[in-house]
């Protein structure tokens, strides 16, 4: 028996259970009562159980029939959700999209993608905020955010991996000549380290252990800033060492103005994710932007 016959039998079963009689189900489906009865009988043979209690005046589900109907309803709902998801992919993004971006990375790498999308989709509107704090997407009405670093577990958010960027500890050539080159992360205690953070909360520096795991080192800096570009400026001005993304200091590293240290302790990188509130069907405007970001960073990851 082919798969069409199997699904047809299940459809007849669901219609009959809903109608409460072979006759009414037959009328609704444009079949004969005999055809409905035979279809149910064949389904019962395949399943090896009776689905209905039958009498001349009454038709009701058996316990097995009730359980099977619940399963069929769940499967039907999943199929409908799949169909709706496919339909949503045919819909162009429209309306206002509220986006939250890390300041420097967002301006340099995400905004060009968003500008391109607004050129392609004239009805897509953007409201973009730049900050370096962890916003609550649901409470603050944010549709999409880009987050750099390890994600905290959250049952009400969806995340998609975009890539990762490599971090490097570096200092100016003149600073290192005056203060020496650290041989291990423990040597940082005797150096001027420029921290990233706000108030009492600072971002740890990450280093690789010999077993491949990451080790967090919380620096106590005489300077602390909430923006990585300001930290980079301070490093360039010989104020100390900073752990920075390589895309921000590649030119200075190449020229020798800045020098990387502790390279043997460097990690593979810090993950970058697109994050949005969990809903049954992702809005087309969110889906289109996330898909485009994935394609962009797969080709040009900083």
UniProtKB/TrEMBL annotation:
It holds the Pfam family LysR_substrate. One of its GO terms (molecular function) is DNA-binding transcription factor activity. The keyword DNA-binding applies. InterPro entries: LysR-type_TF_proteobact-type (IPR058163), LysR_HTH_N (IPR000847), LysR_subst-bd (IPR005119), WH-like_DNA-bd_sf (IPR036388), WH_DNA-bd_sf (IPR036390). Keywords: DNA-binding, Transcription, Transcription regulation. Residues 5-62 form the HTH lysR-type domain. It comes from the Bacteria. The keyword DNA-binding applies. Belongs to the LysR transcriptional regulatory family. This is LysR family transcriptional regulator.
């Amino acid at each position: 028996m082919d798969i069409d016959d199997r699904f047809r039998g299940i459809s007849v079963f669901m219609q009959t259970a809903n109608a409460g009689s072979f006759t009414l189900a037959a009328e609704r489906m444009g079949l004969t009562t005999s055809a409905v009865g035979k279809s149910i009988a064949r389904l019962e043979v395949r399943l090896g159980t009776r689905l209905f209690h039958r009498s001349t005046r009454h038709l009701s589900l058996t316990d097995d029939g009730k359980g099977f109907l619940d399963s069929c309803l769940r499967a039907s709902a999943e199929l409908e959700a799949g169909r709706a998801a496919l339909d949503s992919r045919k819909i162009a993004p429209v309306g206002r999209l509220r986006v939250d971006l890390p300041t420097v990375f967002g301006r340099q790498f995400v905004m060009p993608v968003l500008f391109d999308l607004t050129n392609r989709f004239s009805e897509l509107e953007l409201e973009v905020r730049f900050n370096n704090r962890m916003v609550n997407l649901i409470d603050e009405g944010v549709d999409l955010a880009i987050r750099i670093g390890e994600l905290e577990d959250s049952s009400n958010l969806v995340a998609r991996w975009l890539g990762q960027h490599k971090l490097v500890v570096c200092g100016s050539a003149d600073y290192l000549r005056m203060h020496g080159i650290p041989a291990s992360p423990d040597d940082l205690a005797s150096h001027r380290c420029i921290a990233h953070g706000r108030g009492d909360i600072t971002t740890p520096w990450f280093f690789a252990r010999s077993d491949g795991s990451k080790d967090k080192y919380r620096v106590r800096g005489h300077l602390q800033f909430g923006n990585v570009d300001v930290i980079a400026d301070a490093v360039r001005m010989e104020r100390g060492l900073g752990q920075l993304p390589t895309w921000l200091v590649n030119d200075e590293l190449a020229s020798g103005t800045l020098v990387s240290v502790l390279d043997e302790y460097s990690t593979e990188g810090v993950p970058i994710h697109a994050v949005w509130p969990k809903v049954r069907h992702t809005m087309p405007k969110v889906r289109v932007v996330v898909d485009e970001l994935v394609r962009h960073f797969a080709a040009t990851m900083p």
